[in-house]
Amino acid sequence: RVPAARAAYDCDVCHKKLYADVRSGWASASVRSYVSQALAGYDNCKRRARGSCLYGDILARSLRNSCAGFSDPHYGACIGRIVNP
Questions:
Q1: Label partner for 71 (CA 20 to 30 A): which of 3, 4, 10, 58?
Q2: CB neighbours (10 Å) of residue 49?
Q3: DSSP state, 67?
Q4: Cα–Cα distance for residue pair 74/82, rounded to 1 Å
Q5: Residue 85: is it exposed, middle or buried by C-beta count within 10 angstroms (0-12/13-18/19+)?
Q6: Rounded to the nearest 5°, which phi and psi values hold at 50?
């Protein structure tokens, strides 16, 4: 039996999806969980993608590190500043 081929697409697809996912959910009540799920989805997408993931990695690093020290009301505002500058 031949294993199924993995999808081949550019990493830009993963970056755009991460940006869209976070942008659509940054103002939700459970923003921390939403961002965490979006980042996990980006990491999974990146493993299957080809090409450079530089821009997606920069966005992911910003989302993971820049707002980590904020409490919940301010965390959402911080995420909002990253995705809606």
A1: 58
A2: 21
A3: T
A4: 13
A5: exposed
A6: -115, 160
pLDDT of 5: 54
> Side chain identity at 28, as an amino acid letter?
S
Q: Among 36, 78, 77, which residue's Cα sits nearest to residue 60? A: 36
CA distances in angstroms from 46 to 15, 39, 58, 85, listed in the order given: 9, 10, 13, 24
Q: What's the half-sphere exposure (Cβ side, CA atoms, 13 Å) at 10? A: 7
Token pair 């009301």 is found at 73
Chain segment 64-79, per-residue pLDDT in tens: 999 889 987 898 889 9
| Cβ-contact 73, 33 below 8 angstroms | no
Place 58 in a pLDDT band, splitting at 50, 70 and 90: very high
